[in-house]
What we know:
Mean pLDDT: 87
Keywords: Glycosidase, Hydrolase
Number of strands: 17
Active site: 197, 295
Low-confidence stretches: 1-32, 370-381, 407-415
InterPro entries: GH (IPR017853), GH26_dom (IPR022790), Glyco_hydro_26 (IPR000805)
Number of domains: 2
Pfam family, one: Glyco_hydro_26
Largest sheet: 8 strands, parallel, barrel
Strand content: 15-25%
Structural class: alpha/beta
CATH topology of the largest domain: TIM Barrel
CATH class of the largest domain: Alpha Beta
Helix content: 25-40%
Shape: globular
Domain GH26: 38-358
Oligomer: single chain
CATH superfamily of the largest domain: Glycosidases
Amino acid sequence: MWFLTDSLIVSNMKRFAAILLLVVITCGIQASEPVKSEAAQQLMQLLNQVNGHQTLSATMACVNWNISEAQWVHQHTGKWPAIATFDLIHLPWSSKGGWIDYDDISLLEEWHKQGGIISIGWHWNVPARSGKSGKYAFYWGTDKGKEDEQTLFDVKKIFDSSSSEYKLMMQDIDRVAGILLKLKEKGIPVLWRPLHEAGGMWFWWGRDPDGCNELWRTMYHRFQQLGVDNLVWVWTQSSAWGKPYSDGYRWYPGDEYVDVVGIDIYNESDASTIRTKCYDFLKEYSPTKFVALTECGSVPDMGQQWQAGAHWLWFMPWYDYAVTSDVNSAAFRQTQHGNANISWWNEAFSHDYVLTRDDVKAMLTSGISAPATDTHQKCRKGIYTLSGSRVQSPRRGIYIIDGKKVIKNHPASCY
C-alpha cells in the first residue's frame, strides 16, 4: 500500500536533483547514502538473498585476532560457520611483530579465500581513569578500586574539535581505517559493528546519545573520506536496566548510516519471547533494515527460534574463554560451552536454512540472485530513495516515484 504525501512533479531527470534536494530538506533526511565498494555491494546482495529465507551462522573470536571458536565448532561438527567475527579490542597494544598485530590480515584473507564472511567489532579502549600509562578501559564507571578498569572518557567531546578527547578519537578512527583499507585492497568486505550496545550506557561511548550518534556519523564520514567503502554498517540496539527497548533508539544515528540492526540476547529461554520482544521489535522500528542476532548467550536452539518466527539474518554465540583460548587444551576437546554447546550447534546445522562457510562459498561461486520466493516484489516503475538511488524491491519507507514523494507502508506491495 502506498500513500501520496505531496505532488512534487519531475518533468525530466535533469531536474531530479533539484527537486530531490527540496524533498530531503523538507523531510529532514540527509541526502547521502554510503558509496560501497564492489565487494561490499556483492555482500549486500548475498545478505538480501539470504534474508528471511535462511540464516548465516557465526562465531566470535576468543577475544581478538583468531578463529579458535570457529575451529572448535568445526572440530566437533565438521562444519565451519559462515561468519568469523573479530574484535579490535587490543588496538592500543597492536604493533608490527608484537603479540597482537591488527595490520597482519593474513588470517582474515584466508577465511575470505575459503568463502567465509568477515565481521569486525570494536571494544574501543581509551585511557583508564587512573591515568596510569598503559592502562585502558572501555567500561564507564566510578567504582572504587577499579580505576585501572574503568574510564570517565567523555563522548560529548566529539563536538569539540579542539579537545584532547576529540583528537584521540580521530586518531583511533584513522588507525582503524588503515586496517580496514588493507582488507579493501584485498577485495574483502566487512560487516562493521562499532559502538555496540550504546543504549545500555555501560560503555563510555554510550554515556550520551547525542555524542554517540555524532561519533558514529563522524566515523562514517571520515571513513568515506579515506576511501573505506568496503563496509556493511551494523548497529546494535540496547537499553539500560529498567528502560523500555524503544529507549535504545535514542542512540540510533539514522537510516542513512546503518545497513543492519542487531540485538544482543543473553539468558532468554523462550523462543516466542525472543521473537515478540526482540525480533518483532526491531522489525517494527527498522522495517527497511536487515535484522541480526549480533550476540547471544544461552538461548533456545535455532530451530525453535526459526519456528517461532525469529528469522535472523545471522546469529552469533559469544565466545567462552575457558574453552577456546587454547586450541591445544583438554577443554578445547570437550563439547561443553558457556553459551552454545556442540549439541546446540549440531541442532543448528541440522536445518537446511542454517548456512555454513561452504554454503556461502557455493552461493558466491554460482552467482548471487534474488531468492525465488522473494516477497518484496520487483517494481517496474522508476523508484528512487530520497538520496537518488534506484531500487527494485522497495520496502517500507519514503520514496520518489514518477517525481512524487510517496510513503510505502507495506513491505510486500508494489506501486
